[in-house]
Amino acid sequence: MAAGATVECLLCEKRCRLRQGERGDCRVRLNLDGKLQTLVYGKPCAVHVDPIEKKPIFHMLPGTGAFSIATAGCNLHCKYCQNWEISQREPEETSNIDLSPAQVVQATLSTNCRSIAYTYSEPIVFYEYVLDTAILARQVDIKNIMVTAGYIEEDPWRRLAPLIDAANVDLKAFTEDYYERVVGGKLAPVLHMLEVSMEMGVWVEVTNLVVPTLNDDREGIAKMCRWVIDTLGSTVPLHFSRFYPTYRLKNLPPTPVETLDMARDTALGEGLQYVYVGNVPGHEGNNTYCPGHGGVIIERRGYAILQNLIEDGKCSVCGHEIPGVWS
Amino acid sequence: MLTLRGPARQVFTALIVATTLLIIVIVGIESFVPEEEGSPLPDIRKVRARIEGAGLEPHEALYYEVIEGEE
After folding, report:
1. Phi and psi based region of residue A202 (left: phi greater than 0; alpha: psi -120 to 50; beta: remaining)
2. How far A81 CA sits from the closest chain B CA (Å)?
3. φ/ψ bin of A106: left (φ > 0), alpha (ψ from -120 to 50), beta (otherwise)
4. A147: three-class secondary structure by DSSP
5. pLDDT score of B46 more than 70
6. How many domains does chain A have?
7. What is the pLDDT of residues B7-42, one digit of tens each?
8. Which residues of B touch A4 (CB under 8 A)?
9. What CATH number has the domain bearing residue A222?
10. Inter-chain CB proximity A91 and B66 less than 8 Å
11. Same structural domain, A16 and A54
12. One domain, residues A202 and A88
């Protein structure tokens, strides 16, 4: 192998071709002497204990803590990124700590968290770190959660997915045009990642950030919901999240609550059974409703659980089975 | 048909000659400018120094291939 050879990264659809010293679109993987190197293995720039509801994951271990880590970098470039100060930065520009996979697992245990969430920026770009940490976590019965935009090639995802208990996947819109203009990627690879996730038994929840004027039309939302139902199933939780102006989209207003209500009503009307509204504390769409008797079975206020009527995966009122990971 | 006479004819002729000369000069200069061969390679010593300065430790990635014959 020539020391100065060009390499092609096969982690995501972008397939960056890198000459000596060049780094990929994600900012964290670079060619050094004809080998692709990651710069963020064991070097998180964000480490927190969060409620699992913050991810958001609503159908797995409600009320428990998720030990959450992120590194610099992302393979997408959303104009509204809430975490752009780490996702759109090189690791040389962020403040990182040393935390090996074993130390992540140890810290998860010592903070009484039931899961590790690979989150905030884009865990796909710290793939090797996630993989090694997830293997160790599994050995001590800690669950692994990916919060991701799902922009990954099939082979690496098929290798990682068996270790992932739950994934919240951002489905940012349902048009290639939006992905090209606002996100800096393509829609098709994300849809394929979702299909593979379901096939491999990963518990999937989908988040859609509703941005005024860009992806808030009823027909587009309905089309996305029909795809979710037809491909992933009607019991996949769908979270409509409220946009707040930030980064390069400061010119738009926050999403009106009425728009989120419209999106939720549309999704319920199409046949989805678990539809949530995020970033609006106190909204009725924060709660989980039983499709059997229609009442609230998990009541949430912010990230706190006020009431949980699920026992052994079933509604304790009517016995309806509620899909998710409950133990 | 419009016929130019006197000073107008001289100005018109001068404009045509000047434009022709300008085109010849531009084409000539263009032919001496080498074609762009992509962005220059990063200075690998600076790349390494920056990585080390930030306390980062490169770790070989999974999922890549070497492109034979390309440097």
Report:
1. beta
2. 25
3. alpha
4. strand
5. yes
6. 2
7. 888 888 888 888 888 888 887 776 666 555 568 899
8. 71
9. 3.20.20.70
10. no
11. no
12. yes
Q: Poorest-confidence range of A26-35, B35-44, B48-57?
A: B35-44
Closest of B25, A137, A170 to residue A178, by C-alpha:
A170
Q: Does the beta carbon of B53 lie under 8 angstroms from any beta carbon of chain A?
A: yes
Give the pLDDT confidence score for residue B9 in this predicted structure: 81
The answer for residues whose C-beta is within 8 angstroms of residue A105's C-beta and 6 or more apart is A116, A133, A136, A137, A140, A142
Is A296 inside a domain boundary? no
**B15 within domain boundaries:** yes
pTM, entire model: 0.89
| Residue A15 sits in the same domain as residue A83 | no
Tell me, yes or no, whether B30 lies in a domain: yes
Query: For chain B, what is the domain count?
Result: 1
The answer as to whether A302 is a domain residue is no
Is B32 in the A-facing interface, judged by CB distances under 8 Å? no
ipTM of the complex in this document: 0.92
Which of A6, A41, A43 lies at the smallest CB-CB distance from B67?
A: A6
Cβ distance A5 to B53 less than 8 Å, yes or no, reads no
Amino acid at B11: V
Measure the CA angle with vertex A232, ends A296 and A218; round to 5°.
70
Task: Give the C-alpha separation, B36 to A274, whole Å.
Answer: 55
Are A264 and A160 in the same domain?
A: yes
Structural domain of residue B26, as residue ranges? Answer: 7-34
Domain of residue A64: give its range. Answer: 40-286
Which of the four pLDDT bands, split at 50, 70 and 90, describes residue A244? very high
Contact A28, A70 (CB under 8 A): no
- C-alpha A292/C-alpha A271 separation (Å) is 14
Task: Give every CB contact of residue A39 below 8 A, 6+ residues apart in sequence.
Answer: A28, A29, A30, A90, A91, A92, B51, B56, B58, B59
Clarify whether residues A10 and A134 are in a common domain: no
Q: In angstroms, what separates the C-alpha of A52 from chain B's closest C-alpha?
A: 29
Separation in Å, CA of B35 to nearest CA in chain A: 20
- Residue A257: inside a domain, yes or no? yes
Contacts of B53 in chain A (CB under 8 A): 92
